[in-house]
Amino acid sequence: MADLLMCEPTMLYNILNQEIKHSRLAETNYLYLLDVRSKREYNESHIITAQRMKKKDNDYVIPQSMDLECVKYCIVYDGKTNALDVNFEVREKDSDSEDDEVSYVMGSAVLCARILAEFTRHPVYILDGGYECFSAHYHFFRTQKIFSMPQLDSSQCHHSMAYHIFLSDCRQVQEASLQGTDISTEKKEDVSELDAFEPYPIEVVPGEVYLGTVKQACNPQMHKDLKIKAHVNVGLETTPYFQGDTCRLLQISVTDSPEEDLFSSFRHTSHFMDAHVERRSVILVFSTRGISRSCTVMLAYLMHRNRESLKRSWTPGPLPPPAYLTDDKTRPTGQRD
C-alpha cells in the first residue's frame, strides 16, 4: 500500500506548471488530479485538469482506464480537508439535489486516497485545505471546462481523461441537437485548450518569489494574476515592464555560459530581492528558459534568505548547468552556515 501524504497548494500549483518543450499536463501518466466533491460542486467549478471521482453504492469507483501504477502524481481533493486524521463530517443533503451520494464536508479526500493507495506504488497526495484553499490562492486555475489530452493517439484514447471528454462531448452534442445549435467550433477550441495551455512561473517562495522565462515575463495576464511588481532579469533580453525603473528592475546582463561571472552579482541581487519581499512586492526572477542563469541566482538567494548551504537549498526542479554548481564558492558574500 502506498503512503498517504499532504500536498500543499504551492506543490500542486508547481506540478501544474511544469514544462519541458510543452506543458507536462499533456503527458498521459504525469498527473491524475481527482475531485471527490459532489457533482454539483464539480460542475460549478473545479481545478484545471481535475476529473471527478464517481461513487457506486456510496463507494468510490476507480475507472478501469485509470493506470494508477504508472502515474507520477496522484492528487485527491475535496472541499477543505486539511489533515490525514481529520474528523469526517457528513454534509446535509439539499432538498433539490438529484445526487443520492453521501457527501462529506471534510474527510472524503482521505477516504478516496486510501482506496487509490491500494493500486499504486507512488504516494497518494491529499490537497491541504482542499478546493477552497487552493482556489483562494490561485483563482485563475479554476474552471468549468474538462480539459482534453491533445497529444494522445488513437491507441491511447481509452485513458480516463480522454474517456471523460468523450462522455462530456456526447452529452453536449445531445443537448445541442435538442436545442438546434452547432457546437463544432466551440469543441475545436476546447480540444486544443490543454495543448495551448501556457504554464505560469514556478512559485519558489509562496506569494513572494517566482522563477520563470522571458516569455512569462512578457505575459500581462500572468503579471496580473500573480501580482508581480518587480523583475530580476538574468540575461540580455528585455521585456516591456519596468524599463528605466531601477527600483523595480534589476538587470544582470550575462550570457548563458559557464565562463560568466554570476558570483559578483549575488550580494546585490539578494539585497534587491530582500527589499521587495519586505515591502510585500512580488518578484519574478527569469532568464531565457528559466533553467540555468535565473535558477543559479535563485539558489544563491535561497542560501542567503534561509542561511543554508548549497546542498540544503538545492531541491528538485529546474537545475543550473554543472559548471554553476561548483562547491560553496557560490555562497553569497557574508553567508554563513
UniProtKB/TrEMBL annotation:
Name assigned to this protein: Serine/threonine/tyrosine interacting like 1
Rhodanese domain residues: 33-142
Coiled coil regions, renumbered to chain: none
SUPFAM superfamilies: (Phosphotyrosine protein) phosphatases II, Rhodanese/Cell cycle control phosphatase
Organism per entry: Monodelphis domestica (Gray short-tailed opossum)
Ranges where the record places region Disordered: 311-337
Superkingdom of origin: Eukaryota
Record Pfam families: DSPc, Rhodanese
Xref: InterPro entries: Dual-sp_phosphatase_cat-dom, Prot-tyrosine_phosphatase-like, Rhodanese-like_dom, Rhodanese-like_dom_sf, STY_interacting-like, TYR_PHOSPHATASE_DUAL_dom
Ranges of Basic and acidic residues composition bias in the record: 326-337
